[in-house]
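Hi Y.,

Following your request, here is the sequence exactly as I used it, all 148 residues.
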Amino acid sequence: MPWLIVVIIVSFFANRAGLPLLPMAEWVGYLICAFLAVPGVALIVLGVKACSLRVLSGRDKSTLVTKGIYSYIRHPICLSCVLLAFSAATGFRSAVGLMIAILAIVIIYVRVLFEEKELERRFGRAYCEYKSKVGMFVPKRKRARNPR
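Below is the corresponding structure, written out as tokens. Let me know if you'd prefer a different format.
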């Protein structure tokens, strides 16, 4: 979430300071903003709904959450932060905000890789099986059964 806040603040003040704007009509920026914000907010809501506050806060490290949105993607809240960061950057039409949002993708991805190693260590085979069935940020397509 800190990246989202940084993008919003930088984008807001960059526009006020006369820094370069993204070359798009204002209404296009708002349309893209809404298109990214709606699923971004939905992912946060679904991610929080599927977990207890103890799990989200890190106080309960003994529960592997695989229900709800987590049965489709492993890191919905991280994905929502990326979507909302791009939403803010395009809503403000901020080139600087867009660069920070792109940097956030790299940093969030690296952070998730470290988190996944920790989850593999903590939950072992259960997490490896979960990981093989559920996509990191995008749902995995289920393979069609080959009728013989």
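The chain has one domain: 2-16+24-133.

Thanks again,
Q.
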